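Below is how a single chain appears once it has passed through the pipeline. First comes the sequence as given, then the structure the pipeline wrote out for it. We keep one example in the README because the format questions we get most often are answered faster by looking than by reading.
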Amino acid sequence: MKIRYLSTLDVTGGAAQGAHRLHRGLKASGVDCRMLVCRKDGDDPSVDVIESPAGFPAWEERLQMERKLKASQVSPNPTVHSLNCFPSGLDMVLDELGADVLQFHWIGSETISIEEMGRLRTPVVWRLADQWAFCGAEHYMEPGGTERFREGYLEDNRPPGHSGVDLDRWTWERKRHAWRGWNPVIVAGSHWLGRQARESILFRDKRVEVIPSGVETDVFRPLDKTEARQAHGLPLDKHIVLFSAMNAASDKRKGFDLLVHALREAASAGLGGSTELAVLGDDTPENPPDFGMPCHYLGRLKGDEALARAYSAADVAVAPSRLDNLPFTVMEALACGVPCCAFNVGGIPDMVEHRENGWLAPAYDTADLARGLAWILDDPDRAQALSRRARTKVEQEFGIELQAARYIKLYNNIPARRPR
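Resulting structure:
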């Protein structure tokens, strides 16, 4: 079985890290696999930079052209938008690899054009990292907004506040036309994303499977809390709440502003004197918000061992995302034996079990999120039981070996290569 992965990046960002972890897991299981990326930031020799053939613009050129075109749409949706409209020539390159299966991961930002995807003859497994595959140009819908992927991107259902060229509609229409004869196997990382894919116009007739992401449980594991705190200059005599996200303070979807409200409520309810916050993924901003408790900005850490140490320093992880698929920050924290307090949105309920390994608050209810933090921290015996269940949950359902075995089973049940 010869598998080739296509991903925009190899190790930068959660989606790329997830793809690379699966790649490593399959290699460890004896699968012949290589990862193909537009930009390589890591040092894995089994990851190759894929180049466009002569006569096609390079990836960086396509990105520049896309940025100029995206300026014609005004959208209040802060998520990444990908048009994937400029020819790359990669359909020819990928079909000439002789792979049994091509696996797509995060392939936005002009990795390969929508039209080229529809022309591929090699069987494709597409592991969805977000909603882009069945939406327009946006990678996540606006929470509470019009879900156009279910009814179509029509002229009269554009969300309020949008103006200029409707690039979301244009991108969706291109997908609808280009993919009519193309039948990739869709793999969603969470039950939430799988349901949405099945309900979408683009994928309602496609095969949709749910296979969660995985982590290496021998790396993400509980470490000595005292040593972990000393490594980051965190107090030994306080409760530590950890918030972790790439660009933690600036990504609205990750809910940093909701975290501020929740911690202020928690502080006013009595946690302020005994609890401190650690923020992983950002440096101290110029004007840091008042959380009602001291805050430590840990910056961006490199390497999974460093991340595991940061998680292990915490008593509870908090994930106030407005919308998320299956965030690794939650999975990694649970693997390190850290209970998680989060909103009941997206794929998070696949990992966080209410009052079993953490707390699920109703969406955007910061008062209930604050109650959950207090409930976890107030009782040491309860916290220990939650910690044990957090670790067990990941070992039983999210280990990288289990994920690799599920994909191998899937690969053995894939239709043959399309004829010319």
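The chain has a mean pLDDT of 94.

See the next section for the split statistics.
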